[in-house]
Amino acid sequence: MAKDKSKNKILTGVSFKFGDDISTDLIAPGRLYHLRSNLPEMAKHVLEDADPGFADKVKPGDFVVGGRNFGLGSSREHAPAIMKIAGVGAVLAKSFARIFFRNSINVGLPALVCDTDKIDDGDELEISLKEGVINNKTRNLKVKFNPLPDVMIKILDDGGLAEHIKKNKGFNL
Amino acid sequence: MGKTISEKIISEHAGRELKAGDIAVVDVDVIMSHDGTGPLAVSQLKKMGFSMVRKPEKSIFFIDHASPSPRKELSNFHKGLRDFASQSGAKLSDVGEGICHQILVESYACPGDIIIGADSHTCTSGALGAFATGMGSTDTAVGYALAKTWLMVPRTIKVNFNGKINKGVFAKDLIIYLIGKITSDGATYRALEFGGEIIDELNIDDRFTISNMAVEAGAKTGIFPSDDITREYLKNHGRENCFRKIFADKDAEYEKVIDINCSVIEPMVSQPHTVDNALPVSSLEKIKINQVFIGTCTNGRLSDLRIAASILKGKKAASGVRLIVIPASREIYIKALKEGLLETFIESGAVVQPPGCGPCVGIHQGVPGDGEVCLSTQNRNFKGRMGNPDSFIYLGSPATAAWSSIKGYIADPREVL
């Protein structure tokens, strides 16, 4: 298997802008509970209570860009998992609720803390995980993001927590 | 420098001295998930190559969120959890036993424990002096497999409840008031440690309500020191032997200390669609309600049902209001039955449903219609939470809920208490 060194990856895509307090209920609604055994099907509804039609518009690699406290609420890991399945390349926000943040890394979806006021809906972004910089090509400006803690980089590099545990036969953080 | 409760518990479980900001792999005492998050945990366990759990006597799968099952997909989730529990030796808490967080405090959680659960309200066990925190399914799967997790030791915000609690004001009002003050991310990545002058006046049910909602301020956990009230609760559940005193050092270092003067707190509600959208009931216009729900891991306990029944006794829910009551566990259900509380509810027009999460998670047992308003004693009111993004959820205490169900609009329980 090719080494997936997330630190060296360059991600490119278009921004889909959301507001503050995007809850996991908005990302993966409870009324679709029965689809938790069929995440590709659930992914067709990702974020639809915040932006109906998002799942149809998003293209592989595009970015979800939120405001404050992204991912608050329920611990359902299905929320970042279906974002990833829908093709979202990374989620950017001013701040994240902690369980969502941890879950994102565990499922291999980069979650980056930065000043999202510098990103508009539809902006074209190029993100260097290694350099910690988001290049907003539309607005021609660069936005820095906070580096992830080392333990999370290790988990992300291994392709998520399950892969990390499998590979190391336990924690190796 | 002394230690906070979180620093003490996490240091003990890491086998070395840690302070806020340190990251460590720690031993975990209790691991749990439920029918919403457990199936993914089981599939992650299998993906990692595990067919057993490390600590079967303290690894639990709960069937509470969609219980009894309203549709075949969920029945198959339940079946999968039963099969895995039976094969791995893990504990299963099946339909009718109650809500995971309530069963944990009744039967599993001990002061000083580290508890991880695939549910954000796992922090409820913090009321017994445990470091209890919610995680996702994969973290929980690793917990089941290894009885270990990794944690960053959180900085701690100390919250002192001082002054005097007014008549008609309950633990739910205190915690809604606090969250309104510090906002829904005011404690993100932090532990909340509760104390203050009136801590001895808070009974164990009050403490469960407060710890339960710590996550609504973003907190990693919400901890009370353990004391005689904790000991009494454990004793009543045949578990006095797991009592130990858990407290912070006098010179513990807090990021911040918040003093709450309870004397100024009135009955509170959280308005749609965030918990921190908090206001005193007295400042609301007459907001007509279609449904009232009394129950959940926040407020489905015996003292909650007692206060609600005392208000509803001999009265009827207003025409056009559906009143739903759900005890949090079988133990509470039986006690409420013996005390005649359930009869009072039924006579007042309520639908009493079996122990479990009920309509809180939006799957069954009372999904509101388009444009409808539900006043609930649950812990969160996000858009779509109860299964309909076009409905409106207000949060309040059991007393506010009971009195409002009679009035037909959100009403101040001080009018009747």
What pair of chains forms the biggest interface? A-B, 41 and 54 residues
Largest sheet of chain A: 7 strands, mixed
Instruction: Note poorly predicted spans of chain B.
Output: none
- Rounded to an integer in angstroms, the radius of gyration calculated over CA atoms of chain A is 15 Å
CATH C-level name of the largest domain in chain B: Alpha Beta
Strand order of the largest sheet of chain B: 4-3-2-5-6
What distinguishing features does this structure have?
heterodimer, A: 173 residues, alpha/beta, Aconitase, domain 4, 7 helices, 7 strands, B: 417 residues, Aconitase, domain 3, 2 domains, 5-stranded parallel beta sheet, globular
Description:
The complex is a heterodimer of chains A (173) and B (417). By secondary structure, chain A is an alpha/beta fold. Helix content of chain A is 27%, strand content 18%. The longest helix of chain A has 10 residues, at 98-107. Chain A is globular, with a radius of gyration of 15 Å. Chain B has 417 residues and is α/β, with parallel strands linked by helices. Chain B has 2 domains: 5-261, 2-Layer Sandwich (Aconitase, domain 3), CATH 3.30.499; 270-415, Aconitase, domain 3. The longest helix of chain B has 17 residues, at 72-88. Chain B is globular, with a radius of gyration of 20 Å. Chain B starts with a helix and ends in a 10-residue tail after the last helix. The model of chain B has no long low-confidence stretch (mean pLDDT 98). The chains are: A alpha/beta (173), B alpha/beta (417).
Summarize the topology:
The complex is a heterodimer of chains A (173) and B (417).
Chain A: E1 10-17, H1 24-27, H2 39-43, H3 54-57, E2 63-65, H4 78-85, E3 90-93, H5 98-107, E4 111-113, E5 124-128, E6 133-136, E7 141-144, H6 150-157, H7 161-168
Parallel strand pairs in A: 1-2, 2-3, 3-4
Antiparallel strand pairs in A: 1-5, 5-6, 6-7
Helix pairs in contact in A: 4-5, 5-6
Chain B: H1 5-14, E1 23-27, E2 30-34, H2 38-47, E3 59-62, H3 72-88, E4 91-93, H4 100-107, E5 114-117, E6 131-134, H5 137-146, E7 148-152, E8 156-162, H6 171-182, E9 191-195, H7 204-212, E10 221-223, H8 228-236, E11 256-261, E12 268-270, E13 278-280, E14 291-294, H9 296-299, H10 302-312, E15 322-325, H11 330-338, H12 341-347, E16 351-352, E17 373-376, E18 392-395, H13 398-407
Parallel strand pairs in B: 2-3, 2-5, 3-4, 5-6, 8-9, 8-11, 9-10, 14-15, 14-17, 15-16, 17-18
Antiparallel strand pairs in B: 1-7, 12-13
Helix pairs in contact in B: 2-5, 6-7, 10-12, 10-13
